[in-house]
Design a protein that fits this description.
This protein has 269 residues and is of the alpha/beta class. It has a single domain, classed as Nitrilase/N-carbamoyl-D-aminoacid amidohydrolase (4-Layer Sandwich), CATH 3.60.110. It has 6 helices and 14 strands. Strands 5-4-3-2-1-14 form a 6-stranded mixed beta sheet. A hairpin with a 2-residue loop joins strand 3 and strand 4. Helix 5 packs parallel to helix 6. The longest helix has 13 residues. It binds acetamide (ACM). Acetamide (ACM) binds next to loops. The site of acetamide (ACM) has 7 residues, from loops.
C-alpha cells in the first residue's frame, strides 16, 4: 500500500522562499510516500515575458531543488513539484521528481498552454515513468494541459504507470470531464494537484491579465471516480492510501484487455 498526498495551495507570485515555506508548513506531520505539488509551485504561474522566465529559472543544483531533495529525504517520499528549469539556453515549465535516495529527474511539459508559448521552450524530456525506490509503485508524470492530449496518459500507461501525477495550474473546469477519462481509459490512478488563488499581471501594452485557478485537486480512482477532492479555494493536503498493484491487470471483461486490444495499425500519429 502507498500513501499519496496532494498539496493544494496558493503560491505567491515571484516569492520562492515564501512558497517553499508554505509547502513545508502544509506538510508538517503528514506521513506519506508520494507528494504531488502544483505546476510552477515555487514561483507562481503568470509569466508574461521570456525574460521573466529566464530570471526565475533554476538548474538542478539551485535553491528549490535542494529544498525538494531535502523534503524527499525527510519524508522518505517521492516528491513531484512544478518549477522553472534552466538547461543551457533553454527554459522549461518542468516538474522535478526528487527521490528519497537523493536522485532527481525532470519532466519538461510537452504541451504548452497560452502565454507559456512565449516564455518557455517546448518540453523535450518525453514521457517517462519513475519507480518508487521504497514501494511497489510506478509513477508517470505529465503537467496540466498535457491532459488534453490522451496520447500523453496513454504513453505513460504503456510505460507501466500505476499512478499518473499531474501537477497543474488549471484555469477552466473542463478538465473535470477529461481527466477522469484518462484514469478510466488507462486503468490508472490520476493525481491532479491544482493550485488556487488569482494572479493579476500587467501586460506590456498596459492592459491586465487576470487568471483565477480552479482548485479542486483530486485523486481519481482507476475507475475514473474521484476518491477525494478539495474545494476550489482551500489550502489543504489530501492524503490517501492506495494499492497501485490493482491497476496492473488491464482486463475489463474476460475477453478484453485495455492495452492488448489496441489496434495501433489503424491509428493516425
Ligand atoms: C495549464 O496548462 N496551466 C492550463
Amino acid at each position: 500500500m502507498v500513501n499519496i498526498s496532494l498539496v493544494q495551495f496558493t503560491p505567491v507570485w515571484n516569492d520562492v522562499p515564501g512558497n517553499l515555506q508554505q509547502i513545508a508548513s502544509l506538510l508538517k506531520g503528514v506521513q506519506t510516500d508520494i507528494i504531488v505539488l502544483p505546476e510552477l509551485c515555487t514561483t507562481g504561474y503568470s509569466f508574461i515575458t521570456r525574460e521573466e522566465a529566464i530570471n526565475a529559472a533554476e538548474d538542478l543544483s539551485d535553491e528549490s531543488i535542494a529544498f525538494f531533495k531535502q523534503l524527499a529525504k525527510e519524508y522518505q517520499a517521492m516528491v513531484i513539484a512544478g518549477f522553472v528549469e534552466k538547461s543551457a539556453d533553454k527554459i522549461y515549465n518542468a516538474a522535478l521528481i526528487a527521490l528519497p535516495n537523493g536522485e532527481v529527474k525532470s519532466y519538461r511539459k510537452t504541451h504548452l498552454f497560452f502565454r507559456e508559448k512565449e516564455c518557455f521552450n517546448e518540453g523535450d524530456s518525453g514521457f517517462f515513468v519513475v519507480e518508487h525506490p521504497l514501494k511497489d509503485c510506478k509513477v508517470g508524470i505529465m503537467i496540466c494541459n498535457d491532459w488534453r492530449y490522451p496520447e500523453a496518459a496513454r504513453s505513460l500507461a504503456l510505460l507501466g504507470a500505476d499512478v499518473i501525477a499531474c501537477p497543474s495550474n488549471l484555469v477552466t473546469d473542463v478538465w473535470r470531464i477529461g481527466l477522469p477519462a484518462r484514469a478510466l481509459e488507462n486503468k490508472v490512478f490520476v493525481a491532479v494537484t491544482n493550485r488556487c488563488g488569482t494572479e493579476i499581471r500587467q501586460l506590456e501594452d498596459g492592459s491586465t491579465q487576470t487568471l483565477t485557478f480552479t482548485g479542486g485537486s483530486v485523486l481519481y480512482n482507476f475507475t475514473g471516480e474521484p476518491i477525494e477532492q478539495a474545494d476550489k479555494t482551500e489550502e489543504r493536503v489530501i492524503t490517501l492510501q492506495i494499492d497501485p498493484t490493482l491497476t496492473r491487470d488491464k482486463h475489463f471483461t474476460v475477453f478484453n484487455d485495455l492495452l492488448n486490444d489496441r489496434r495501433p495499425e489503424y491509428y493516425l500519429s
